[in-house]
Design goal:
Layout (H helix, E strand, L loop, with lengths): L1 H12 L9 E3 L4 H6 L16 E3 L1 H10 L37 H14 L10 E5 L5 E6 L4 H4 L4 E5 L1 H12 L7 E5 L20 H14 L11 H9 L5 H8 L17
Length: 268
């Protein structure tokens, strides 16, 4: 999104990448490190796709220092990245799936659609969930029969360092049979990110996470089509992303190992 945002403002406003400052709000301190990676840096002018990452804890601190809360501000329409000829004055919407982005669920439906040659409706009711070691280690499968079942991929959602260690040990033993794993360091996933707002009492963290999950799931989800739709193709055209080469350059990146640093001290 950082690369796309800067590219669109360059085209629309005649700015250089270095003149555009992109700040984003993320649930995790590690997103600061991710944004600073060389994988997200322009080879032309050295500017980053994302210049600054703020977390909810920091936003709360900033608002507190000004003596205000979000409720003190007027509601306004969301800005849109680019004009497509359609009106986007809708309430906030979400996706179905996990609270870490829903990647496992949506990619599972896409994989079934691709391997079976049949378009699978994006419905969470089509997915079966099996809890393994604990609530942070879940297997996913598609609830279908016949041809689709014979080509059923195996996905998992894994959260928390203890479960991550289990995954790593299985990988070393070559005993891991998953086609895709959505994996997060924080127990309960991104909704319990290390930089999310704290509970008022230390012992109330679990109940706070559950209440936030409930609120998150009450947000109306967008129905995602697996195949390319006319809306998506029209958006590609408006954003000059009609060719595979262009989409590969703007929407994808390669992650490279980061050398270990000695005596690293980080102060947020």
């Amino acid at each position: 999104m950082g690369a796309l945002l800067k590219r669109e403002h360059q085209r629309r406003d005649g700015l250089s990448r270095g003149d555009i400052f992109h700040l984003t709000l993320m649930p995790c301190f590690d997103k600061k490190l991710e944004a600073s990676r060389s994988d997200f840096k322009s080879p032309i002018d050295g500017s980053q796709d994302v210049d600054c990452v703020l977390t909810p804890l920091e936003l709360e601190e900033i608002l507190g220092s000004e003596g205000v809360t979000l409720q003190d501000f007027e509601r306004r329409k969301l800005d849109i990245l680019t004009e497509t000829g359609e009106e986007f004055d809708f309430p906030l919407s979400s996706h179905f799936g996990s609270v870490s982005g829903g990647y496992a669920e949506n990619l599972l439906l896409a994989a079934v659609s691709e391997t079976s040659g049949k378009n699978c409706d994006s419905k969470q009711s089509d997915i079966g969930y099996s809890t393994l070691r604990n609530g942070d280690f879940i297997e996913l499968s598609i609830k279908s029969s016949g041809e689709i079942a014979s080509k059923r991929p195996k996905f998992a959602i894994v959260n928390g360092f203890r479960n991550i260690q289990t995954i790593v040990q299985r990988l070393k033993r070559k005993a891991l049979g998953y086609d895709y794993i959505e994996i997060m360091a924080c127990p309960s996933g991104c909704i319990n990110g290390g930089a999310q707002c704290r509970a008022s009492e230390p012992g109330h963290r679990d109940s706070l996470v559950e209440s936030v999950k409930k609120l998150y799931q009450e947000v109306e989800p967008v129905k995602l089509g697996i195949k390319q739709t006319d809306d998506l193709l029209r958006l590609y055209k408006v954003l000059n992303l009609e060719t595979d080469d262009c989409r590969e350059k703007i929407l994808y990146t390669d992650f490279h190992p980061v050398p270990k640093m000695q005596n690293l001290t980080v102060s947020w």
